[in-house]
Write a structure and sequence with these properties.
By secondary structure, the protein is of the alpha+beta class. Helices cover about 15% and strands about 25% of the residues.
Length: about 100
């Protein structure tokens, strides 16, 4: 993604992405998401931002590493995680596509 400052805002597209019949044997996509944080406690800020957007919590914490310092008090981080099954198979948010046969 070419907009790392707003990358977390796009994570909700994973909610309800898979249908029930697709569940068997599939694991979620592995995501690399960039996020800017303040200098203090950047790892917890990143994880909290991702969990808030996905509306879930992780069984095991995502990997977070500093990419670079972009300003005196701003750090660019990379958050790596597998999208939780509860997000992918959210029955209330399953994407539905209507096909027009005309």
């Amino acid at each position: 993604m070419n907009l790392p400052g707003s990358a977390v805002e796009f994570l909700d597209v994973f909610r309800g992405l898979y249908r029930e019949r697709d569940k068997e044997g599939s694991s979620g996509p592995y995501v690399f998401c960039y996020h800017f944080t303040s200098k203090t406690d950047s790892e917890s800020q990143c994880i909290e931002a991702v969990q808030d957007k996905l509306q879930c919590s992780f069984a095991s914490p995502p990997e977070v590493h500093n990419v670079r310092k972009t300003a005196p008090n701003t750090i660019m981080n990379c958050i790596q995680f597998t999208v939780p099954q509860t997000v992918l198979y959210d029955e209330n948010k399953t994407k539905k596509i209507k096909l027009d046969n005309s």
